[in-house]
Design a protein that fits this description.
The complex is a heterodimer. Chain A is an alpha+beta fold. Chain A is built from seven helices and 16 strands. In chain A, the strands form six sheets. In chain A, strands 11-12-10-16-15 form a five-stranded mixed beta sheet. In chain A, strands 6-5-9 form a three-stranded antiparallel beta sheet. Chain A has a two-stranded antiparallel sheet with strand order 1-2. Chain A is globular. Chain B is α+β, with helices and mostly antiparallel strands. Helices cover 30% and strands 24% of the residues of chain B. The chains are: A alpha+beta, B alpha+beta.
Chain lengths: 312, 298
Amino acid sequence: MPGDSQIEVEGRELKLTNLDKVLYPKAGFTKGEVVDYYAKVAPAIVPHLAGRAVTLRRFPEGVEDMDAAFFEKRCPKHRPDWVKTARVEAGPHAGMIDFCVCDGLPTLVWMAQLAAIELHPSLSLAAESDRPTVLAFDLDPGPPADVLDCCRVGLRLRELFDHFGVECFPKTSGSKGLQVYAPLNNDDVTYEGDGANGQGTKPLARAIAQLLEKQTPKEVVSKMKKEERKGKVFVDWSQNHRRKTTIAAYSLRAREQPTVSTPVTWNEVERAVETQDAGSLVFEAGDVLKRIEQHGDLFAPVLELRQRLPEL
Amino acid sequence: MARAIWSGSISFGLLNVPVKLYSAVARRGISLREIRESDGARIRHRRVAEGTDEEVPYEEIVKAFEISKDRYVPLSKDELASLDPAKTRAIEVQDFVEIAEIDPIYFDSPYYLGPATGAERAYSLLAQAMEGSGKVAIARFVFRNKEHLAAIRPGDGVLTLTTMRFADEVVPPSELEDALPSEQPKVAKREVDMAEQLIDSLTRSFDPSAYRDEHREELLAMIERKASGEDVVVAPEGEEREATKAPDLMAALEESIAAVQSKRSPKATKKRTAKARKPAAKKRSASTAKPSPKSRSR
């Protein structure tokens, strides 16, 4: 069939199909281009996926056919035998599930071949699924608030973490918002906090969100309720949970254009706010590959930096 | 003889077991009537058209969905009936699962399944096979115009059927995030130990007959006393205990930040952003230079 090909990736045999199929109709971006993007971004994205349970969000009929799209936690049964999986509890009712683990280029290309446009990894390593390696905030604008409002809240988050000597890193969600990650990579941290001594990312993230809301109730909301989010930035703290996932740095998003969740610098965030230029924080697949060539992986410290949560 | 409320058959694979459904619960609620206090006249409810005193006969009443204020889409009884699930007589077994896998939150109402006349052997065979496997059957069936999910369990040669809620009917705790704890407050290990000891001391095997509906019994007793002309004294409620205050992490955070700020000179507070970033940045470059003590690759 045209658009099909049998390839070898690092010694692994893979069959690619329907490469001509347009997955982003408005942009004319094909499945072949999705596979190509992931193959090229592999050196940057794989470290952020390695060892983690990944939930795939697949769009077999493209990004506009939401009925055909689905989240896939259970790693497909028909996977090649070299695709690694990790058994992780997926929920009180779902029980233990074998998730896909992406530890290299072949698996990444195989996922792209499944039209898994969005990759949503866990905030912990599968081997220690109770220990988040990072504390994450998802800043989600309720229209008419926009990404610049998220940037303002993001800068306040940075300032707040600064008080405690904790460094944090921004990335675009690739959709409408901004995400802020505080790397931990620290064995003393759990999601919930273990009672007497342990520190938990979720209670802290929630307290921070509540504090921001208390300081500026007209700009920030910490509750998930949709009707309260209008015109405000929702500081989503609840993703700090062992069963939740967050879009991976460098993952494509299923939007009209092939935008990417892109790590940025705080300078870029500040500049976007100063110049009122929301567009400066939108990056598509091609832009991202250029950025990586120029700056390397701006999110590398998220995997390396070892920090402690502030003691309260 | 007990009256069946439904009849049909359990079907899976080639097996087909005709059964009858019996309620497993005797509702023991006490029904109370409404009367006028002054003379004991029974209260009657009438259906009247709004703004008038005209009673509307049942045949003239249709249901309607209010799309906006005072604008309705009427739905006739026939139209509603056309949406009812097809009346099938099958209890279609979908899967067999371990009972421990089912969160009790999904269970709704219990029924007994009895064998239909002539199906006693097939029924007994199914009950024994299920008992042997230790599994529960998850089935779908149409009952009272509604599609139901149900769990069929064996026990002592009898099959029980419990209707179940569909997953989307159960409210996940996350939707009640402002009411349910989503974080575990810090508690001292000693206190947990004490609470666990208390739990241990109250642990025994479950005996359903040990628990009774005390409200119902008290209500019945009150009715009897009043009926025999005895005065009823309402015992005062116990003293309200002051609720233990939950630790407020946000307040602690706020205090902690205020403490950090007060340590800085007033001038520095204004330029805090620019100044405070430096030590953090320094720390990072240090950590990238010497990966072993501060960072680790995983």
